[in-house]
Amino acid sequence: MTVEVSSLKELVEQASGDDRSPDTQEYFVNMGPQHPSTHGVLRLVLKLDGERVLRCIPVLGYIHRSIEKISEHMNYMNCVHLTDRMDYLSSIMNNWAVSKAVEEAAGIEVNSRIQTIRTIFAELERIQSHQLWWGVLGMDLGAFTPFLYGIRDREVLNDVMEETVGARLTMNYVLPGGLMADIHPNFVHRVKEFIKYFRPKLDEYDDLLTNNVIIQERLRNVGILSAQTAVQYGATGPVLRGSGVAFDLRKDHPYGVYDQADFEVPVGTIGDSWDRYWVRVEEMRQSLNIVEQLLDNIPPGDFLVKKLNSKIKIPEGRYYSQLETARGVLGVFIASDKKDEPYRLHYRSPNFNNLWCLEPMIKGDYIASLIGAMSSLDLVIPDIDR
Amino acid sequence: MATTTPDPTETDCPPMDFGDLKSECVAPRPSIMGQKRSLRSILWLSFKGILRGLLTTLSYFRRPSTVVTQQYPENRETLEMFERYRGRLSLIHNEEGEHGCTACQICERLCPNASIIITKDKKNEATGKPALDQFIWRQDTCTFCNICVLVCPFDTLEMTGDFESSVYDRRLLVFNLNEYAGPTAGQLDKLEDEELAKAQMKPMKKYQGPVPMCGGEMDGIPKLDVEKSTDV
Predict the structure, then answer these.
(1) Whole-number Å distance between alpha carbons of A332 and A80
(2) Which DSSP state fits B93?
(3) Which residue of A has its CA nearest to B111?
(4) What order do you get walking across the sheet with B131-138 strand by strand?
(5) Within an 8 Å CB–CB cutoff, is residue B151 touching chain A?
């Protein structure tokens, strides 16, 4: 059996063809699927002229696990645990997205205690996701030390969450209609300790990377994504906000208890890698603010609205719900046929749309800039393929 | 992506209106090289930025107490996991070695990836009620989602803090959780004859019955008696 990727072949023939002249030729290079800078099994077919990138074609499908199809044979409670494996750095937000969609469709009202705990966890998860991204960005640009600093602080936060949840990465903490367990008695105290610990560390982050001229020069004016292109490509999250569009679901369509918290949405100016870098670092500060405000006012109540219900039935119809994960808007589409399992479940994952911004960002730039630009997109590959 | 597809960045698109979306928190531009400065000023500012980073790292030599590295295999004795940590699944046995599983199979039905297989004795001779025969847990497919623990109506399952589960053969990841096949602790207590109760507790080994290791021979693992086929 032969498999032909005809379009790529055409591109190669078109590029070189019968050209035997001594001038520079356009040529193709595979970046990935096993490249350390792609953070996963993402393959980029690069059309190069010397060191200039003329085209950058992402090829997907190396880590497709058919999460959406498997979900069609599962009840809604079980669907949740698969979403941990999509964007594993914002697993609680993924859990929440499905739970929110199911709750809205089935008409389950959750109390404010559940909403507050969910919001706090989502923000903590956002911080740890950005901590890892910050370390990895340094490593991609050739600085190994920041990675250790980012991981060190993430470890402290991971321990805080592990005490309540019991898992470190694939958390599966939020269920349709509540939470898997109540917060640990130590939780509030330990989060306060973490906030006290992490605020000065953010200034250390600035010393290590933000004020470093090498990092600034490698990020500034590299990978410029205009606001118009970002909106056209459906980019969301820090990528869109880095381009200067102040769109954040937490502000624009508040869910959870975000409307009770006072925080700012950081935006960039021209949409280069530096803007996206700064937006994420600032988001960590804002997330700390949100957690600090909500932590003292966790209302009393149950952590599960009623008895654990594995057979939630959703009325016939189509439902869509979305929320803001660490990387952008995660939408959940449910088509239901009155059964306790979805007829079709679709995820609109933020990384998929953000990925395609890579080509307009990097066209005509050096291949070395591609690494920094891609790192500033903060892609998680399993979320692209699902 | 065919070659004929027009490049989306080059298509005509009217300028977009983003409405009144505004934020007060706008990213500053790094300005060392951006503005008109003398070469000496640029070099000094660049040097200062790099030096600050270096001093940050160097300062940790002076504060060894802030080093967080744990020497994992060496600290095994003192290492404590959180009580809610989701490690190996275990069937809770009381001091007398009796479990509380009635073989109701709710965990088996709700397990998202069929990691739990329960076989049962439909009617126990002594109690006249269904009794557990084998509680097979497939650690190799388990995602540690905690749903079995959550749905168990008798609270007889728990996730322990045991996380060191590497083995050289994946067949060793499928095993029985119950130490004996027979009725629950409560049902055994109701039996007045202690001898009869003892007789109901048929000992069950870790690898026994229709689990993949049964009958297999491996170094250090004794051959097990087989009754049924090995396919689970």
Answers:
(1) 11
(2) B
(3) A78
(4) B116-121, B131-138, B174-176
(5) yes
- Residue B37 in any domain: the answer is no
Q: Is residue A66 part of a domain?
A: no
Per-residue pLDDT at A39 = 75
Residues A168 and A206 in one domain: yes
Smallest Cα distance from B86 to chain A, Å: 5
Chain B residues in contact with A310 by the CB 8 A cut-off are: 110, 151
Cross-chain Cβ contact A172/B32 below 8 Å: no
- Least confident range from A21-25, A242-246, B197-201: namely A21-25
Using alpha carbons, select from B81, B213, B228, B84 the residue that is nearest to residue B139.
B213
Same domain, A88 and A126: yes
Strand pairing category for B25-26 and A266-267: parallel
Higher pLDDT, A6 or A74: A74
Closest CA to A225 of A209, A244, A198: A244
- Domain span including residue A35: 6-59
Q: What pTM does this model have?
A: 0.85
Residue A334 banded pLDDT, cuts 50, 70, 90:
very high
Mean pLDDT of A302-324: 85
Contact A374, A55 (CB under 8 A): no
- pLDDT surpassing 80 at residue B11: no
Which residues 319-358 of A are in CB contact (within 8 Å) with B?
A: none
Q: Domain of B166: which CATH number?
A: 3.30.70.3270
Q: Is B86 on the interface with A (CB under 8 A)?
A: yes
What CATH number did the domain enclosing A287 receive? 1.10.645.10
Whether the complex's predicted ipTM is more than 0.90 is answered with: no
With cut-offs at 50, 70 and 90, classify the pLDDT of residue B18.
low
Residue A169 lies in a domain: yes
Q: How far is B212 from chain A (nearest CA, A)?
A: 26
- Nearest 5°: the CA angle B45, B46, B47 is 90
Q: Does A231 touch chain B (CB under 8 A)?
A: yes
What are the tens digits of pLDDT across the range A245-278?
888 888 888 888 888 888 888 888 888 888 899 8
Contact: B30, A82; criterion CB under 8 Å: no
Give residue-wise pLDDT tens across range A343-359: 999 999 899 989 888 88
In a domain, A104, yes or no: yes
Chain position carrying tokens 């599966």: A172
A138 in a structural domain = yes
**Residues of chain B numbered 172-231 and touching chain A (CB < 8 Å):** none
List the 73-112 stretch of A: residues with Cβ below 8 A of B: 74-75, 77-78, 81-82
Note whether A211 contacts B3, CB cutoff 8 Å: no
Average pLDDT over residues A109-134: 91
Residues 104-163 of A with CB under 8 A from B: 145, 152, 155-156, 159, 162-163
Q: DSSP secondary structure string, B42-95?
A: HHHHHHHHHHHHHHHHHHHHH-GGG-----TGGGTTT----TT---SEEE-B-T
